[in-house]
Amino acid sequence: MLKLTPILLALLYGFVTWRFSAWRLKAQLDQRSAELAEPGLKRQMEQLARALDLPRIKVHLYDIPAINGLAAPDGRIFLTRGFLEAYRAGRVTAEELTSVIAHELGHVALGHSRRRMIDFSGQNALRIGLAQVLGRFIPGLGPLIANTAMSLLAARLSRSDEYEADAYAAALLTKAGIGTAPQVALLEKLEHLTGAAGAGRPAWLMSHPKTPDRVAAIQALDARWTGA
């Protein structure tokens, strides 16, 4: 039992850390956000709502300059002020912005936040256990190897979530009559919009799949649905 104590403590630590992070994020979002009211998105939001058989879809505006979308652990959907400003400047279309909302709805519907809580706690425990085992054979390097292995695992799980949310969004956009073209178009311009520089990084180190891989996956789904 004593041998298991560090692992059990690591599980508890991971759970508490995740809960604290979720609480802190909620406090930040509550303080810096309000419900989004953008007339130019009204028709597209109504299309999504009808496709989901909902009276309406509530989206919040997060007042930060970054260009991003967010699905909070409590199920709320956010677009940043930076994204809305890009839309108003004509750099993003209403349909493309709607594809971001559909993607974040996918994260909520598929339970990714809850899954990440379980994964984070489990990975923390696994990191401790692996470091203990490796430390016996590779003194001094065990914790480093364990941390690297868990970082790679976390990145892989995150990429899997992104593919799933993309697929959900593609299906929702298709059902809503918007189609996947705006989703693909936004992905292809997103790195330029955000200034992200990940093109040269190995795929296994990234939390999001590479853009060409995401686009190819969406187009494969679209071809299968349309018989093209």
From TrEMBL:
EC number: 3.4.24.-
Protein's gene: loiP
Pfam families: Peptidase_M48
InterPro entries: Mito/Outer_Membr_Metalloprot, Peptidase_M48
Ranges where the Peptidase M48 domain occurs: 38-220
UniProt cross-references to PANTHER family, sorted A to Z: METALLOENDOPEPTIDASE OMA1 (PTHR22726), METALLOPROTEASE YCAL (PTHR22726:SF8)
Co-factor binding details: Binds 1 zinc ion per subunit.
Keywords recorded for this protein, A-Z: Hydrolase, Metal-binding, Metalloprotease, Protease, Zinc
The protein's name: Metalloprotease LoiP
GO CC annotations on file: membrane
Cofactor field: Zn(2+)
GO terms of biological process kind: proteolysis involved in protein catabolic process
Any one Gene Ontology molecular-function term assigned to this protein's record: metalloendopeptidase activity
Keyword presence, Magnesium: no
Family: Belongs to the peptidase M48 family.
Species of the source: Pseudooceanicola marinus
